[in-house]
Design brief:
The chain is α+β, with helices and mostly antiparallel strands. The chain folds into 3 domains: about 15-20 and about 25-115, 2-Layer Sandwich (GMP Synthetase, Chain A, domain 3), CATH 3.30.300; about 120-180, GMP Synthetase, Chain A, domain 3; about 185-365, Trypsin-like serine proteases (Thrombin, subunit H, Beta Barrel), CATH 2.40.10. Helix content is about 25%, strand content about 35%. The chain has a 7-stranded antiparallel β-sheet. It has a 6-stranded antiparallel beta barrel with strand order 15-16-17-20-19-18, surrounded by 4 helices. A 3-stranded mixed β-sheet has the order 1-2-3. The model is unreliable at about 1-30 and about 190-195 (pLDDT under 50).
Length: about 375
């Protein structure tokens, strides 16, 4: 997430209110009304919404995402993270300075007093990332839990006490919470998110999002080989760069047989890559489970696959299965990420903006 310098410790509530007037982007409602019907249907099915409720929630989430970016910049070190409360239809913002609670509320967000700032939570994740090589295999993932203002560390059953002792040794006993889970995250290699593509006649993955001259996808797919063919087995090009583990992204360069388009395979238009808030809805496209939707649960998550550790992932409860990996994750019309892996009930994705930056790619807009 972006980090901005705080412009001042005392900001008048009236000024805050003025800053957040009209945060909905112009034309947002018309954009949402043009969403692919399949996406709205999936939101209705998976989140238990009516058609109108799905469109209203997307509009509300867009306003919340814009507000989060502004508040993060204003609060600086006092920003304790934010998440979208779908039941209340509002952004909830953690604030470590009680004197600024009323100012945040004046912006239209709900505010709560947080013990740890987002920077402190991220620093705790960074400390665990630095110690990753020495952590036992019973620790399967860790990352920021914005709603509870903690870092959550997931371990295999029966390892809670050992993990608590370990965290205390790293000085993270206060900031971290340990949970036990039998689920084992893993990459999904046989995948498509948008359209299928084939790697060196040895594997199948999926296009994430089109970029100028090619597309971005999951990095673990590029480990299979270099040459790629499209869904119709016509030569498509080759991988230009990838990273996995560490991160999970790759850029493929396509030949003149292919024209990158700013849409995903059900026709949904990609309008940009504004990062959605924790708590907001998102959907993914995959060849096994199709369009499925859920909620963004946490950001800056570290996941330990058997093939290696990845950092900076985003955690969701979107349903996926083998054959879905590498697919497009989108919130409204905004690209969010590339499906990395998961386990039943949990799906992790590589955020798209860091992938674009690292590969020097420019997103193709529909």
């Amino acid at each position: 997430m972006n980090v901005y310098k705080f412009a001042g410790a005392a900001v008048a509530a009236a000024t805050i209110g003025a800053l957040f007037t009209g945060v909905t982007p112009a034309g947002a409602e018309s954009d949402f009304s043009a969403l692919n019907p399949g996406m709205v249907t999936a939101l209705q099915r998976d989140l238990g919404l009516t058609h109108d409720q799905a469109l209203a929630q997307l509009a509300s989430e867009t306003r919340a995402s814009t507000l989060e970016q502004t508040l993060e910049g204003r609060l600086g070190n006092a920003f304790g993270g934010a998440f979208y409360d779908a039941r209340g239809g509002k952004l909830r913002v953690g604030v470590t300075d009680a004197a600024q609670l009323d100012q945040v509320r004046a912006s239209g967000a709900d505010a709560f007093l947080a013990r740890f700032s987002e920077r402190q939570l991220d620093a705790a994740v960074d400390r665990l990332n630095a110690a990753e090589a020495s952590l036992p295999s019973s620790v399967t993932s860790w990352g920021v839990d914005t709603a509870n203002n903690r870092v959550t560390v997931t371990v295999t059953p029966g390892q809670r006490d050992a993990a608590n002792s370990l965290l205390s040794g790293y000085g993270l006993g206060a900031v971290a919470t340990v949970v036990e889970s039998a689920e084992q995250p893993r990459p999904r290699y046989d995948v498509r998110g948008g359209d299928a593509y084939y790697i060196a006649n040895r594997g199948r993955c999926s296009v994430g999002f089109s970029v100028q001259g090619g597309f971005v996808t999951a990095g673990h797919c590029a480990q299979i080989g270099n040459s790629i063919a499209g869904f119709n087995r016509v030569a498509m090009g080759s991988f230009g760069t990838y990273r996995f583990p560490g991160s999970d992204y790759a850029r493929a360069n396509t030949n003149s047989n292919w024209t990158p388009r700013g849409v995903i395979n059900n026709g949904t238009r990609v309008a940009g890559s504004t990062e959605a808030a924790v708590g907001a809805s998102a959907c993914k496209s995959g060849s096994t489970t199709g369009w499925t939707c859920g909620t963004i649960q946490a950001k800056n998550q570290t996941v330990r696959y058997a093939e290696g550790t990845v950092y900076g992932m985003t955690k969701t409860n979107i349903r996926s299965d083998s054959g879905d990996s590498g697919g497009s994750v989108i919130a409204g019309n905004q690209a969010q990420g590339l499906l990395s892996g998961g386990s039943p009930g949990t799906m992790f994705f590589q955020p798209v903006n860091p992938a674009l930056q690292a590969t020097g790619a420019r997103l193709v807009i529909g």
